[in-house]
Design goal:
By secondary structure, the chain is of the alpha/beta class. Helices cover 34% and strands 27% of the residues. It contains nine helices and ten strands. The structure holds adenosine-5'-triphosphate. GO terms for molecular function: ATP binding; ATP hydrolysis activity; branched-chain amino acid transmembrane transporter activity.
Length: 231
């Protein structure tokens, strides 16, 4: 479904992502793991077209996305929940959600009820400004907004980072249910190994901008964890 081949991503002249090749299949819950600064966020930004320069290939259902601007990649089916959430603080919850619908294939402007039902707090605060929500509520808003773009694949950058534990549990369960019950393909950048193990069927570990290991989640052994993940 999502095929990355020899993908490089640059910050100016510095190559932060080096020759990454990975393939994500329909229905996968694919976790991207690795220590701080190994290039996990850069990988997602490269797939989304947010880097100043990229070489290689990003294919979604066979269609080459390299060369397309980010909004066209969103319309092609990439949903994105960025690190820091990217909520528009002066916009209300409803307006933030409507932004997501503009990348959808159909129903522009329609806030689907099933998405609000995933996160009831958003319904309650629908007219509140995004900037007045707590971090956890903003994260729920960012996920809901991405879902309203009707993505083929949802890419999330550390969605549980810095969030209070009761909301973390809720977010984790929603993501697991979206994958298992609705068949949504998910790519998750995550430091929370427990969640990544519980939710994923496949993983890749990055090291210095390259893929060090990838495979089925059962192959994520303690040795690999010590070698690549434990600080
Ligand atoms: N805007 C930028 N300009 C230049 N270099 C950057 C920029 N953002 C990140 N880098 C560098 O690119 C490399 C990869 O960073 P990246 O943020 O992708 O790592 P990460 O694995 O997501 O880390 P973390 O877990 O801390 O979020 C690091 O060496 C980082 O210093």
């Amino acid at each position: 479904m999502l095929e990355l081949a020899n993908l490089d991503g640059f910050y100016g002249r510095s190559r932060a992502l080096q020759s990454v090749s990975l393939s994500v299949d329909t229905g996968d819950f694919f976790s991207i793991l690795g220590r701080n600064g190994v290039g996990k966020t850069t990988l997602l930004r490269t797939v989304l077209g947010l880097m100043s320069r990229t070489t290689g290939s990003v294919r979604l259902d066979g269609r080459e996305l390299i060369g397309l601007p980010t909004h066209e990649r969103a319309c092609a089916g990439l949903g994105y929940v960025p690190q820091g959430r990217g909520i528009l603080p002066a916009f209300t919850v409803r307006e933030n959600l409507m932004v997501g619908t503009f990348a959808a294939q159909s129903a522009h402007g329609d806030i689907a009820e099933w998405v609000l039902e995933l996160f009831p707090i958003l319904k309650e605060f629908i007219n509140r400004r995004g900037g007045n929500l707590s971090g956890g509520q903003q994260q729920q808003l960012a996920i809901a907004r991405a879902l309203l773009s009707q993505p083929k694949i949802l890419l999330l950058d550390e969605p549980t980072e810095g969030i209070q534990p009761n909301i973390v549990e809720q977010i984790e369960q929603v993501l697991i249910d979206l994958n298992r019950d609705k068949g949504l393909t998910i790519v998750l950048v995550e430091q929370n190994l427990k969640f990544a193990r519980r939710a994923s069927n496949r993983f890749a570990i990055l090291n210095r901008g390259s893929v060090a290991v990838d495979g089925k989640i059962a192959g994520l052994t303690d040795d690999l964890i010590h070698e690549h993940l434990v600080v």
